[in-house]
Write a structure and sequence with these properties.
Layout: H1 5-52, H2 57-63, H3 66-89, H4 91-104, H5 108-125, E1 134-138, E2 145-155, E3 162-169, E4 177-183, E5 188-189, H6 194-202
Antiparallel strand pairs: 1-2, 1-5, 2-3, 3-4
Helix pairs in contact: 1-2, 1-3
């Protein structure tokens, strides 16, 4: 290959990479979410195929096709989630769910998982009593910052300090991450919303507000609840 063509080859490969990379990351995120939905809805689809098989083996075979199965399972799961949301919004549905949660509360291991997950999700949906939910902490080194979400503030028995329990999501999948316990005075408050923080994480930092407070030298820390 002539030497003159090599710069053009490298240049177009780089352009192609940066063109496809956002699409690839977006696909990874959506594929992960759709995979979860499909796994939840697949048992319903298999049950439907079993009921249809005596009447139409062809249609039952279509329901076992992997691509069609994923699509229908996702739609069924979304429909089920919508139905549960409508049901939970009604007075009767709310009371039934409360009764079910009370029954789960009697099972130690189930209550630990279910109750902990529910408290975590509620902590992200509800605004904090004071301060901001989205913060920066020094992680993994003192010179570096990571975006985190304060889920709880606890008390240091020995030192008397307030400690922030911070969930640090990983990119591009924010459902996995780390739990860090940080002295509250070392937490850096931001003015980001939870939605902005999640967008920042899922896009690898590309989709971020134009500015952020990096340390506490120019402002005092407000205690979040």
């Amino acid at each position: 290959m002539p030497e003159a063509n090599k710069p053009h080859l490298v240049r177009y490969i780089v352009i192609g990479f940066f063109t496809l990379a956002p699409l690839w990351v977006t696909w990874l995120v959506f594929d992960f979410l759709l995979g979860l939905l499909a796994q939840a809805g697949t048992p319903l689809l298999h049950a439907a195929a079993g009921l249809i098989a005596p009447f139409s083996s062809t249609l039952a075979g279509w329901l076992h096709d992997s691509m069609l199965q994923k699509l229908i399972a996702t739609l069924l799961t979304l429909g089920m989630l919508y139905g549960v949301g409508v049901f939970a919004s009604q007075v009767l549905g709310h009371r039934i769910i409360e009764a079910m949660e009370a029954m789960l509360g009697r099972l130690p291991l189930v209550q630990t998982i279910y109750g902990g997950t529910k408290r975590f999700l509620l902590s992200l949906r509800q605004p904090p009593v004071g301060g901001q939910r989205v913060v920066l902490i020094s992680f993994p080194t003192p010179e570096m910052k990571a975006v985190g979400l304060i889920t709880k503030v606890i008390h240091d028995v020995d030192g008397g300090r307030q400690l922030a329990v911070v969930y640090v999501p990983t990119s591009p999948n924010p459902t996995s991450g780390y739990i860090e316990i940080v002295p509250l005075e070392e937490v850096v408050q931001t003015d980001w919303t939870v939605e902005e923080a999640m967008s920042f994480v899922m896009t690898g930092g590309a989709n971020a507000p134009e500015s952020v407070r990096f340390d506490n030298r120019s402002s005092s820390t407000v205690s979040p609840g």
